[in-house]
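Trying the structure run again after the queue cleared.
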Amino acid sequence: MKKLFIVVALLLFFSSCKSIDESIELLSYDGTEMEQFSGQLIKCKAGFHVQNNLWLPVKMKAGSFELFVDQQKVGDLYLDEPIKLKAHKETVLKLPLRVIPEPGFMTTTYKASKKPMVQVKISGYPTVGALFIYKTIPVSKEAQIDPVQFIPYIPKF
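Done. Tokens:
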């Protein structure tokens, strides 16, 4: 009976995606280390500090997202390793990422590099869970950032 109560409580907890989304907070972006940059593939490692405010550890399975710069799709972002966040703690992440750029990627990013601020959007449907219960949730995050943060190697003429 006790196990059934715990399972029902967890199902009710995960039925609200908003509670998970609001409980995980991005504290800082620590930069990117480029490993490979070509027309067909961009590989890098991105560093983040993330705070999990839940009393349960949270896991996100490997998945894919779409990247947009100024409402124009520039590529698909792939996370090849799962993410694990400890319960009610700050976690330092070093994520290996892969980007498959769209045709015209360089033109779009070059135009964006000339602007003082750029609208960046990441959207997708990651599978997130705690313990043994997983759920696919929609994610769509937008931010205005300085182009130097994501395009550090493109010269401005």
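The chain has one domain: 24-149. Worth checking whether this holds up in the mutant runs.
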